[in-house]
Amino acid sequence: MIALSKIVDARKKLNGITQHTKLAYAPKLSLLSKAQIYLKQENLQNTGSFKLRGAFNKISNLTQEQRENGVIAASAGNHAQGVAYSAKHFGIKAVIVMPESTPLLKVMGVKELGAEAILHGNNYDESYAYALEYAKKHNLCFIHPFADDEVIAGQGTIALEMIEDQSNLSTIVVPIGGGGLICGIAAAYKQMLPHTKIIGVVASGAPGMYHSFYKKEIQSTKSVRTIADGIAVRDVNPLNFGYILESVDEIVSVDDEEIANAILYLLENQKLVVEGAGASVVAALLHHKFTLKENEQVGLILSGGNIDVNMLGVIIEKGLARSHRKMRFCVTLIDKPGSLQALSNLLSKLGANIVKIDFDRISTSLTYGDANVTLFLETKGKEHQEEIRKELKANGYEFIEI
C-alpha cells in the first residue's frame, strides 16, 4: 500500500481546492440495518465527485515542463472533470477522452471547465487505449484515473477527514471501479486504524475486480454493462489489484436493479442526488450483501453525484411503479359519448389520479365501434391498486395491465 506520508502530503496540496465534505449520520439507514450508518458525502464535493482529489494531487506534482506540454485523461466523466478543473487552476491545456455513452452532463461539465472533450470507444478501456496513443502523438502527460500513487494518495485524503470526524468507525464501505478510491482509503485506515474493516462494492455488470479478488489472480472480462458508469471498468490493473489484495477485507457485488433502488432511496430519504457508483454502497447495505454487528459504526462513501437527468427520470418512474405508486392499464370501451366519463368517475371515486390518457379507435385488432383507452394512474400503494382492479372487474371492465 502507499505510504501514509504521501496521503498527508496530498492533503496539504488540496487545502483550499477541495471541500472537507460532511460525514452525516443516516438515521433511517441506521434503523434498517440496526447499525450506526454515516454517509461521506463526496457527491457534494467540488465537480460533484471525489475524483478532484486525486487529479489535482497528481497535476500538482508534475514538473513545470510536463504542465506546459499539457495533460490528457481517459474517463467516464468524474475523473475528466477533476483533471479539467485542476488544469484550469494551473492554466494548462487539458484533453479528455470519454466513452461515447458518457452522460451529457459530464461532457458539458468538462467543456465548461475549458478542456477539450473527445468521445471515443464503447467503454472506459477503449477510451483509455485511444488516450494513450493520443498522448504519445501530441506529447501530453497522461493522468491515470486510478493506477497512479499520486492519484491514490489524493483519494486517500477522504479517510483522513473521516478519521478526524468519527474515529470509531469500524467498517468502511467503498465503491470499486478501477480501485483508486478504495486503495487510498484502505491505505490510510490500515496504517492509522488497522483493525478497521474495508469492504469494496462492484457492479455485477463490471465484475473484473470481484472475481480477481477471490481467485487471487487477475481475471479478464470481455465487456461491461451497468448504470453505474463511474465504476464501469472492464480490466483489472495490476497496481491497484496488488494494493487491494494487501488492504481490502471483502468485496461484494450489486446489480443494476439494486443500484437503482438505492439511488431512489437516497433521493427520497436522504434528499441526496447520488450517481450509480456512489449509490452502490447503499445498495449493498439495503440488500444485505455484508454482515454488520448490532450498533456497529459504519462509513459509506457516496463517491459522486453526477447522474444523467434522463437516467434519473427513468429510475424514478420505474421506482414509483415498483412501489405501487404508478399504475398503467388498457381497457376497451364502446366508442360513444359518456363511456370514458363513466370510467373516469369510477376511478375518481376510488381515489386514483389520472395523469395521462391515450385513446385509440383505429387499431386493426378492435371491433368496429370500440376504442382502446390506456390510462396512467397515480395510486397509493399495493392495497389501493388491488381495490382498483377489484372494482374495475365488478363493473364489467376488461383490462390489461401494462
Automatic annotation (TrEMBL):
GO terms for molecular function: L-serine ammonia-lyase activity; pyridoxal phosphate binding; threonine deaminase activity. The keyword DNA damage does not apply. Keywords: Lyase, Pyridoxal phosphate. Its cofactor is pyridoxal 5'-phosphate. Pfam families: PALP. It comes from the Bacteria. GO terms for biological process: isoleucine biosynthetic process; L-serine catabolic process; L-threonine catabolic process. Residues 328-402 form the ACT domain. CDD domains: ACT_ThrD-II-like, Thr-dehyd. Signal peptide: none annotated. It catalyses: L-serine = pyruvate + NH4(+). InterPro entries: ACT_dom, ACT_ThrD-II-like, Ser/Thr_Dehydratase, Ser/Thr_deHydtase_PyrdxlP-BS, Thr_deHydtase_catblc, TrpB-like_PALP, TrpB-like_PALP_sf. Belongs to the serine/threonine dehydratase family. This is Threonine ammonia-lyase. It comes from Helicobacter valdiviensis. The lineage of its organism: Bacteria, Pseudomonadati, Campylobacterota, Epsilonproteobacteria, Campylobacterales.
